[in-house]
Design brief:
The protein is an alpha+beta fold. The chain folds into 2 domains: 102-214, Mac-2 Binding Protein; 231-461, Trypsin-like serine proteases (Thrombin, subunit H). Helix content is 21%, strand content 26%. The chain has a 6-stranded antiparallel β-barrel with strand order 17-18-19-22-21-20. Strands 11-12-13-16-15-14 form a 6-stranded antiparallel β-barrel. It has a 3-stranded antiparallel β-sheet with strand order 3-4-5. The protein starts with 7 loop residues before the first helix and ends with a helix.
Length: 465
């Protein structure tokens, strides 16, 4: 009998397992079976990447926020730079390049350093001297209804333009139509308050009657039926003409535009800028006139701030008299010339007159001479055969009707005047000319229309000196 080396229990277990019939699915009962699973990875292998991802996201968010902030600051800086460097995005530009809000324009308060925001708010239009007020809200000029208007408002308007209190003001009326309405005087007008602030808009005006205003009695009293050639002027023929003298010697001509103000050329005063050096003689046509007429003293000389000798630019100056001239005497040979109002169309081939103090053929002391001229188109004057582009917008040129008069280049500052609608207007003043009696060398004159705003601004700035 053979002995079995294996334990009976193991054999029986093995046999039973083999001989057990297959069990149905319903006979299977869940049993706990212990499975060995791989050891889990160290805890650090899960937690470290999560912290690293969070930090990366935080860094990315911070960088994006910083970049966005920098871009925002950059855009803001660009916009601010554009705003301060551009010519008035939301306002109006002063003459020096600075800007003021549109609401500050014509509000009676000087905001521009040179006062441009208040210097051109009231104007006279055309040969009829139609009074117009600038409205910054609509950027338009409006006529003023004559209903409720009085001389008090007229004097206030003249002061707003630049005329002194003593100006010989005259108000009138004319009928006109307006699609944009009118300005009408508010009740209880206060002459000490800026006139623009005391007017209000109205869609209607009784009889469509609007205000005309002449701040000085200018441009009258001259006989216009004259010969065309150069000849000696008679006393009282050109009552606005003055002789500007230094040390008793005639230096330049000039034109009276108000009781206090004389227009002349800047190069006349560039070497003698002290008012004490000058004496002004009005109502004279010959040397004897200086003996029997008083010398008017000068209180201020204002040359254009942009004047340059070479090339000749902005060659205009104003002299303010220490004492106002008296235009009230009917027999007086002293009268102002009218400044050209906006809308006054004076252009080639308009005829005009020039006057100068020059020596006669026998070599005597200077006499007032006169000659008729004809305006020439600027393009023609700037052609290669004439002045070859030397004329700028502040200049105009005119040719003498009589080529032998020899007038246009001898007396700087002398007025060039033209007659329109029954009045005489200052349209230029002599500044230079080269052999101007020759066919292609006309006289060159300062363009008063170009300098009109500058003239009124200086008058207003110094009206109470």
């Amino acid at each position: 009998m053979t002995t079995n080396p294996y334990p009976a229990s193991c054999i029986i277990h093995e046999d039973v397992e083999r001989e057990l019939p297959p069990t149905s699915r319903s006979d299977v009962k869940p049993q706990y079976v212990h499975h060995l699973t791989p050891n889990p990875p160290p805890e650090i292998s899960h937690s470290a990447p999560k912290q690293k991802d969070g930090k990366q996201r935080c860094v990315k968010f911070t960088v994006a926020a910083v970049i966005s902030l920098l871009l925002l600051l950059l855009v803001t800086g660009i916009l601010l730079a554009y705003y301060f460097s551009s010519s008035c995005v939301h306002g109006s530009q002063c003459g020096d390049g600075s800007c003021v809000w549109e609401s500050q324009w014509c509000d009676g308060v000087r905001d521009c350093p040179a006062g441009q925001d208040e210097a051109n708010c009231v104007r006279l239009h055309g040969s009829g001297f139609l009074l117009q007020i600038y409205l910054p809200q609509t950027k338009t000029w409006s006529s003023v209804c004559s209903h409720g208007w009085s001389d008090m408002q007229g004097r206030a308007s003249c002061r707003a333009i630049g005329y002194s209190r003593g100006a010989d003001m005259k108000s009138g009326q004319q009928k006109t139509d307006s699609d944009d309405g009118f300005l009408i005087v508010k009740p209880y007008f206060n002459p000490e308050v800026f006139v623009v602030q005391q007017l209000e808009h109205s869609n209607t005006c009784p009889n469509n009657s609007v205000v005309t205003l002449r701040c000085t009695d200018c441009g009258s009293g001259v006989n216009s039926s004259r010969a065309s050639g150069g000849q000696q002027a008679t006393l009282g023929s050109w009552p606005w003409q003055v002789s500007l003298q230094v040390s008793g010697s005639h230096r330049c001509g000039g034109a009276i535009i108000s009781p206090y103000w004389i227009v002349t050329a800047a190069h006349c005063v560039s070497r003698s800028s002290s008012p004490a050096d000058w004496a002004v003689y009005a109502g004279v046509v010959d040397p004897l006139g200086s003996l029997f007429n008083p010398a008017r003293s000068v209180s201020r000389i204002i040359a254009h701030e942009g004047y340059s000798r070479l090339p000749r630019r902005n060659d205009v100056a104003l002299m303010r008299l220490a004492k106002a001239l008296d235009f009230s005497v009917v027999s007086s040979n002293i009268r102002p010339i009218c400044l050209p109002n906006v809308g006054l169309n004076v252009s080639a081939p308009q005829k005009g007159w020039i006057t100068r103090f020059g020596r006669t053929t026998d070599g005597d002391s200077p006499q007032l001479m006169e000659a008729q001229v004809s305006l020439i188109d600027t393009a023609e004057c700037n052609s290669s055969t004439v002045y070859n582009g030397r004329l700028s917008r502040d200049m105009l040129c005119a040719r003498e009707m009589d080529g032998g008069a020899d007038m246009c280049h001898t007396d700087s500052g002398g007025p060039l005047v033209a007659r329109r609608d029954g009045l005489w207007w200052l349209i230029g003043f002599n500044i230079w000319g080269e052999h101007c009696t020759e066919r292609n060398k006309p006289g060159v004159y300062g363009n008063v229309t170009y300098f009109l705003d500058w003239i009124y601004r200086q008058m207003k700035e110094h009206q109470d000196d």
